[in-house]
Amino acid sequence: xxxxxxxxxxxxxxxxxxxxxxxxxxxxxxxxxxxxxxxxxxxxxxxxxxxxxxxxxxxxxxxxxxxxxxxxxxxxxxxxxxxxxxxxxxxxxxxxxxxxxxxxxxxxxxxxxxxxxxxxxxxxxxxxxxxxxxxxxxxxxxxxxxxxxxxxxxxxxxxxxxxxxxxxxxxxxxxxxxxxxxxxxxxxxxxxxxxxxxxxxxxxxxxxxxxxxxxxxxxxxxxxxxxxxxxxxxxxxxxxxxxxxxxxxxxxxxxx
Length: 256
Hints:
Blueprint: H1 5-10, E1 22-27, H2 40-43, E2 48-52, H3 70-85, E3 90-95, H4 97-112, E4 120-123, H5 143-154, H6 158-162, H7 164-182, E5 196-201, H8 209-213, E6 223-228, H9 235-238, H10 240-251
Parallel strand pairs: 1-2, 1-3, 3-4, 4-5, 5-6
Helix pairs in contact: 3-4
């Protein structure tokens, strides 16, 4: 079935694999874009077709207005992904901000009676229901203060934050995504009938091992936690080999 181009703006597929038995939809961290998964499209096995999600307001969609509210984003994503989810089995991978999107998208699909992923992969993403007081909002702050807070929170180098490329290419999307994250409110629902694989970094300043382990309470059908030897919250690139190994182990045989 041919999917209209408007859907392809959201669901990219850098390397189509007609013989694949499963699609892996990938959701980036706040301020990121689909390009962070570019190497995944060739490095994962042929039975997996990698489909990175590209949100408006960044990269190839820079001219489009970004979405700034969590509920609006999830509902729009569900509509844009529906044609793809009806074609073949799927799994979701989300890093940090993207992990919460993948999780809540799965719960929305369940409420709507739509096809759900065979497995959820959540990396550097805390199970927010166990958190007490959340960090104070930052999305409304002036650029300098916003970047200072973000840099401290995620241990980002000053030279990166001060670079012209970052401030022109990343800052608008990062501010929009932080606004989305700050509008999110967790509500209790029954655990999913979808297995969850969580990845954490041993020295991540943003997500503790307990917050990664707590995802076990959101599934009834299997959970696995892998802690990686990293101090980097953004280990989606630096620990790519270990991430791929875990994904392959947990997807092997699921789609037949």
